[in-house]
Amino acid sequence: MSSGGPLRGIFPIIYTAFHADGRIDERGQRRIVDYLLAAGAHGLAATGGASESAKMTLAERRALLELCLDSVGGRVPVIMGCTAESTADSLDLVRHGARLGVRAAFGLLPQGQQHLQGDAQGEALRAHYLTLGEGSEIPIMVQEVAQPIPPELIVEIHQRCPNVRYVKEEAPDTGHRVTALIRAGGDRLEIFSGGANLLDDLSRGAIGAIPGSIGVADLSTAYNRHVQGDRSGARRAFNHFLPLSHWRRQFGLIGAKEVLRRLGVIEGAYLRPPEGQRLDAHDLRELDEIMALQGPPY
Questions:
Q1: CB-based contact 258:279 (threshold 8 Å)
Q2: Which of 10, 65, 110, 295 is the most exposed place for a label (fewest CB within 10 A)?
Q3: pTM, two decimal places
Q4: 278: left (phi > 0), else alpha (psi -120 to 50), else beta?
Q5: Angle at CA 273, nearest 5°, toward 270 and 275?
């Protein structure tokens, strides 16, 4: 695997390709990896929530990670998702990834603890991330989605265990969260956003983004031009990404997979059951018009 150097740039989640019966489509999976690398991704993020990992056994997740790493072949650094039913399971997944050459691991609290609030949540977060950070050879990334964590708590965890050094920030007010984390932690924390507001997040101090598997060419170009100081070029690339990004927000994963299907990357826009998401004729017509007017890259 690729090693050394800081993690920076666009690290899209590798969606999982499935057959219609729910089995992992190995050929489709390799095509997704190649598609993302051709789009200019600076790294890749395997076995995250958008990879539908929660619907997989631990053995399937290990096998999927191995498949993704083999497909990447050391061309870019790979990070991994490790959210599981227990901290022990998460740590086992992280150690497996570290042996394979994964560069960092991100995750939420164990699934049975994600409902916790207040002091109970704080204690659970401390215990979980400190166990991962102290037990892992690779850096750990605190993940925030719907339930933001007090910035001071993340800094405290980092101070107690410097191996917990990254944040995957996807709270609704991502930009303000990035600013608050930097104010609380200075240069001690390194923050990735979800990419939906990439240029604002970068200007606030984020070091990159972990988006989904579509729009990666635009986001990678926007990141590169931002780093080069080409603000207008970065804005043009990011603005090209916005129509498709806005459309898919209402559907989540099924909308993005439909784009990949249309591009010939995967054979079908299949989610592993239970699916829970559908596109109707109106949705598909809207996508027709957006893709025709927007034009590639997607």
A1: yes
A2: 295
A3: 0.95
A4: beta
A5: 65
Model pLDDT for residues 62-120, shown as the tens digit of each residue: 999 999 999 999 999 999 999 999 999 999 999 999 999 999 999 999 988 988 889 99
Number of domains into which the chain is organized: 1
Contact in structure between 130 and 157 (CB atoms under 8 Å):
yes
**Terminus-to-terminus CA distance in the chain, angstroms?**
28
State the average pLDDT over residues 172-194.
Answer: 89
CATH number of residue 220's parent domain? 3.20.20.70
The pLDDT assigned to 2 comes to 40
Closest CA to 45 of 62, 27, 33: 33
The reported pLDDT for the residue numbered 3 is 47
CA distances from 291 to 61, 183, 195, 238, 258 (A): 33, 40, 20, 16, 12
Note whether residue 2 is domain-resident.
no
DSSP state of 272: P
Domain span at residue 188 reads 9-294
Strand partners, 10: 209
The tokens of 78 are what?
A: 């790979």
DSSP state of 82: -
The answer to whether residue 1 sits within a structural domain is: no
pLDDT (tens digit per residue) in 250-266: 988 999 999 999 999 99
pLDDT for residue 36: 98
CB atoms within 10 A of CB 250: 10
